[in-house]
Design goal:
Number of strands: 4
CATH topology: Fumarate Reductase Cytochrome B subunit
Number of helices: 9
Shape: globular
Number of domains: 1
Largest sheet: 2 strands, antiparallel
Structural class: mainly alpha
Distance between the termini: 49 Å
CATH class: Mainly Alpha
CATH architecture: Up-down Bundle
Strand content: 5-15%
Radius of gyration: 22 Å
Length: 289
Amino acid sequence: MSFIQWAIDPWGLRVPIHIAWFLIWVAAIAGLAFFVVHATYVRYFAKPRQFAPDGHPIPSEIPARVPRHSQVARAFHWIMAVSMLTLLFTAFLPRVGVQFNWVTYHWIAGTVLTASILFHIFHASFWLDFWSIWPDRIDMTDAYHRVLRAIGRPAPPPRKFAKYPLENKLYHGAIIVAGLCAIATGVFMMFRVRTVFFPRNPYLFSDMTWGMIYVLHGLAGVGLIALIMVHIYFGIRPEKRPITKSMIYGWMSREFYLEEHDPERWVVSPPNAANRTEERGLSDTRGNP
């Protein structure tokens, strides 16, 4: 059984043409298996979480509604979500028997996703704390301590999270790899169909190169199936719902913030400053030191 489908080109060379489509079901089953394993572990085996005690006083000016995501960040997230789901449905539904004229919808959704990602990179680089979503030394140390405690070895309890827990940061990294691979290969693939951006040119690359582009695009696509399933799963879990709601309303409660996050690692401005920042549509937080 091969993960890649091959063909013979006019010159008699064996070239890849795309991934084997059974990988769609592999990705979907892997996502469902993750749901079952994680839910079972949390329900029956997970120990109550313990955090290291705060070594500093809690700032008295923390607002009742802690701003987490600006209007601009929320708009980007939902535009990206709709475009990515459209891409997955238009790409894979025809492969499981649902036939429709999907090509135009697919490249339009890909264009929207690409534009939104480019905007997000620019926005995050100049208006948000770019490094708050990347793992730092504290994250890695605390992750090591969690592993030791999980296997019964002595270790100090981990500290509370910064704005983004380590699992969010690692997921963000996985999405970056899969998403950018799909976008980069998708842009080249647009040369093989008629669009409003540039003339169709199926001879831009050799058959071997085109085949590798299609394979990489397909692998990124099936990877995104599992990643998005996991993202939706965590979004609807009860303990994660305050985070999900913050992507809708822009804020989370002061109680959840103090329970889960370290005020020194995620510094929140006083209410008046937070309101002014939200009006500008910018994030009013600092990330990791």
